[in-house]
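Schema walk-through. Below, the input block comes first and the output block second. Nothing else is stored per chain. Lengths vary across the set, and this one has 264 residues.
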Amino acid sequence: MTILEKIMGHKKQELANAQVVKPVNELMKSKLFGRKTLSLTESILNIEKTGIIAEFKRKSPSRGLINGQAILEEVTTGYFRSGASGLSILTDQEFFGGNNEDLVRARELNPIPILRKDFVIDQYQVVEAKAIGADAILLIAAVLDIGQTRNLARFARSLDLQVLLEVHQATELDHLNEYINMVGVNNRDLHTFTVDVERSVQMAGEIPPDFVKISESGITSPLTLKKLRGCGYQGFLIGESFMRTPEPAVAFSDFVKSIYFDND
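--- output ---
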């Protein structure tokens, strides 16, 4: 069984339990459910920002614990102050050490768009995302069929949530539809968890121009970001390279300064 298969098996069980504990009608009573969402695409394309979706992540299935000491309030507000276009908050507990409360707290503190990073396979999770303050959701082509992707994306848009479709290979672009806002090329293979940034370079020309292009995972240097920007990417989802340092917000600030001032 691959890591992805383990994650999805657990996610289905977790989903069934969540629907019993907090039904959809309860989620819709949330104070955050009725808020006006922020546009992640507009923020990414804003020339006054970095284009970076900065991620808060405590652990991963491939690397184990990344940072168990980081304080969400300090990290996310630091990301915001240094020019992050958006935040990515992991809400998966079992494999990534996150939870819904992390996103709720990040929403309280930061006036920029937030992507809920999780394995979304059901409309319940889309309602849940809106109820905890997310502005966008992630749909992963590797765990959905084309019909599921379309239905979930359409439902998300009906709730005024934007949609980031994550792909790893060109064949998964068949999942694209009019309800998708962004296409993220994950440089990490979710079956083996190996990372190769050249994946984004190779796929850049395959993504239709209608969608905001985002490169995800493995971006560890400003020079790599500049290279990807040259290939047509407008957004960059980065987290682990910041989170594995003692002070992620400082690491992010230094990274941003290097984008603009390091010409080496």
